[in-house]
Amino acid sequence: MIKLIVAIIIGAIAGWIAGIIMKKANSTLMNIVLGIVGGAVGSFILGLVGIGATGFIGNIIVSVFGACVLIAVVNVLKK
């Protein structure tokens, strides 16, 4: 249960940071949701190339990467 709460917090932080990096017109709530999902996406993509994350900061970096990818995909699909 604690791990799930920590994963949601990390995803929310990552979504907020990714929203700032991408400078797109998505809502903050949408970016937070994309950050939560982005953690799984980032872990999967970087896992394919053999890069893993350890620690709080490493997980945030991976989640930000995944959230940026998802924000880019959502913005392309919106057009």
Q: Can you walk through the features of this model?
A:
The structure is a single chain. With 79 residues, the chain is mainly alpha-helical. It has one domain (2-78). It has helices at 2-22, 28-48, 55-78. α1 packs across α2 and α2 packs across α3 (55-78). The longest helix has 24 residues, at 55-78.
Which residues form runs of ≥5 with pLDDT under 50? none
The secondary structure category is mainly alpha
The total domain count is 1
How many strands in all?
A: 0
- So how many helices? 3
Helix content, binned percent: over 70%
Tell me the span between the first and last alpha carbons.
38 Å
Largest sheet: none
H/E order of the elements? HHH
Global outline: globular
Radius of gyration: 12 Å
- Tell me the β content: under 5%
Mean pLDDT: 83
Q: Top keywords for this entry?
A:
79 residues; single chain; mainly alpha; globular
